[in-house]
Amino acid sequence: MGAKRMKILLIVALVIVVIGAVAGIWLYNNSRLYISTNDAYVDGRQIVIGAPAAGKIVDWRGTVGTTFGSGSTVGNVQVKSGNSSSDVPIPVPTDATIVQRSAVNNEFVAPGTPLAYAYNMNDLWVTANVKETDLHALRLGEAVDVTVDAYPGVVLHGQVEQIGLATANTFSLLPSSSNNANFTKVTQVVPVKISIQGYQGLGLVPGLSVSVRIHKQ
Q1: CA distance linking residue 204 with residue 217, whole number of Å
Q2: Cβ atoms of 90 and 76 closer than 8 Å
Q3: Do 48 and 117 touch, CB atoms closer than 8 A?
């Protein structure tokens, strides 16, 4: 092997070592200063607008994207009693924007039938699933950097508002459990509620994928 080729190989090896060292230092500092996860999403309180009585839907105004104030009427259920009929209002319990509807005018419904689903778009947050091995370093009020996949390059800010009191698997329809000796330990995650500031006008909607970086105190 020529001296020139040997020199090139040594330089390449040195570059690889330097890159590996820099990456290692970055990963170490990142783990020491932050708790990071991309297992997170925009969340909010889902509001189910249901039929208050049995009857026929009339005057339905709950189209997708329409915003209603608390106590507003989104339509009526026409209830028949003998030869007379009366309209029972369908109320919206809180400020909300319709995101999905199933109601159709002149459709007959039973009491409690879901007619639409809505969210208060001014009261959204992030739910991040944090590994159980990181919980010891997590505190309420810690600052959080939030990036939304739908809006690359935009960094939102928030803070840890609530740490779950049970793992996400606890609420699963098929929670994992060990029924035999072939147990494989799986790292569990705990849902953490994170506020997001200054997102109004950005167009966030529930369900968008998010990455978070929680600053350790």
Answers
A1: 28
A2: yes
A3: yes
| Six-digit token string for 6 | 């040997």
Q: Give residue 171's pLDDT.
A: 75
SS3 content of the chain, % helix, strand, coil (to 5): 20, 40, 40
Cα–Cα nearest to 73, from 62, 64, 63, 57: 62
What pLDDT was estimated at residue 93? 92
Residue type, 157: H
- C-beta of residue 11 within 8 angstroms of C-beta of residue 80: no
pLDDT of residue 62: 94
Both tokens assigned to 11: 């330089």
**pLDDT score of 142:** 96
On the CB side of 123, CA atoms within 13 Å amount to 10
Please spell the DSSP secondary structure of 48-116, one letter per residue.
EEE-SSSEEEES----TT-EE-TT-EEEEEEEEETTEEEEEEEE--SSEEEEEE---TT-EE-TT-EEE
Structure tokens at 96: 């909300």
Q: Can you say whether residue 35 is alpha, beta or left, with left for phi > 0 and alpha for psi between -120 and 50 degrees? A: beta
The token pair at 35 is 């708790």
> Mean pLDDT per 10-residue run, the chain (217 residues)?
67 70 55 85 96 96 95 95 93 96 96 96 96 92 96 94 91 64 80 93 94 91
